[in-house]
From TrEMBL:
Domain of life: Eukaryota
Entry annotated with the keyword Metal-binding: no
Keyword annotations from UniProtKB, A to Z: Hydrolase
GO molecular function: dipeptidase activity
Family statement: Belongs to the peptidase M20A family.
InterPro entries per record: Amidohydrolase, Bact_exopeptidase_dim_dom, Peptidase_M20, Peptidase_M20/M20A_hydrolases
Native source species: Ascosphaera apis ARSEF 7405
Protein name from the UniProt record: Amidohydrolase
Pfam annotation, one family: Peptidase_M20
């Protein structure tokens, strides 16, 4: 009976604390709502591709400094990365802010929303634990070039996440369940994201005049097209949580010359590391087979 009473008392205290924290968070968000909305819109109205997010970098840094925080600009050797730290002792909670856009179509991936949600989360947590006297540290990390090479691996290598106990980020996504189990159950906010491996392939052939002596040529464009078609066939045999996609980046431009050069980028995605490595190996075999079938040489990087 005593154990049950203790449990009920602890539950009551926990419920009261949770309610108090929610009130603090609501108050902070309400106070900053207009400024956060302006931050979000400014980033959205000024899209910048990866490694060129200079205005976004400065906008976010200026915003955080205006609220009294010390900001490390160009953090960890990356020109458009930044870091903000708050608190002392206890565990370290990291929030990631992405702010690069897609080439030609702006913030279709919603990175302006990612920045705003991470900034909001950082501010509410930092201010709440300070007001309630709770030990803990909070880190806001600007992670550039997420649509390209990816800033996070570079930041990991530079030690930006050293000592972090939990790393968090929210990503906008369409609100429909495709039935493949990607959403968490019971209304829990979240989406199961798959891991990604990227590599490029360059195909080297031999030029020849397409009208007079095409038989002397080795067609690099044929190789990249062959790989594309065979990857399309492979998709029938992959898991529902796996993805393969690629684009042609470059090829020779003269139509009456057999293309001696072509380049493509490949992305492979899977829910588990083991699956990612296995699928990547299959994709690379197809790339190699395309080169072999057309008589080309192939060079892969990534």
């Amino acid at each position: 009976m005593t154990a049950l009473t203790d449990y009920q008392q602890n539950l009551a205290v926990g419920t009261e604390m949770t309610s108090k924290i929610k009130e603090e968070v609501d108050e902070i968000v309400n106070q900053l709502e207009d400024k956060l909305s302006t931050l979000c819109r400014t980033i959205w109205e000024n899209p910048e591709i990866g490694q060129q997010e200079f205005k976004s970098h400065d906008t976010i840094c200026d915003f955080m400094e205006s609220l009294g925080y010390t900001v490390t600009r160009h953090a960890y050797g990356l020109p458009t990365a930044f870091e903000v730290l708050s608190g002392s002792g206890g565990r370290l909670v990291n929030f990631n802010a992405e702010y690069d856009s897609l080439p030609g179509i702006g913030h279709a991936c919603g990175h302006n929303l990612i920045t705003t949600s991470s900034v909001t989360a950082f501010l509410t947590l930092a201010k709440t634990i300070e007001k309630l006297g709770i030990e803990g540290r909070v880190q806001l990390l600007g992670t550039p070039d997420e649509e390209g090479e990816g800033g996070k691996p570079k930041l990991i290598a530079a030690g930006a996440y050293k000592g972090v106990d939990v790393s968090l980020m929210a990503h906008p996504f369409e609100g429909c369940d495709s039935g493949d189990g990607n959403y968490y159950p019971d209304g829990i906010a979240g989406f199961r994201m798959v891991g990604r491996q990227k590599f490029t392939a360059e195909y080297f052939g031999k030029p020849a005049h397409a009208g007079s002596n095409p038989w002397d040529g080795v067609n690099a464009l044929d190789a990249v097209v062959s790989a594309y078609n065979n990857l399309a066939l492979l998709r029938q045999q992959i898991q529902s949580t796996e993805r393969i996609h690629n684009v042609f980046i470059e090829s020779d431009k003269v139509v009456n010359i057999i293309p001696a050069y072509a380049k493509a980028t490949y992305h492979v995605r899977s829910a588990k590391l083991r699956g990612l490595r296995a699928l990547e190996a299959k994709v690379k075999k197809i790339v190699e087979a395309a080169a072999l079938a057309t008589g080309c040489e192939v060079k892969m990087e990534g």
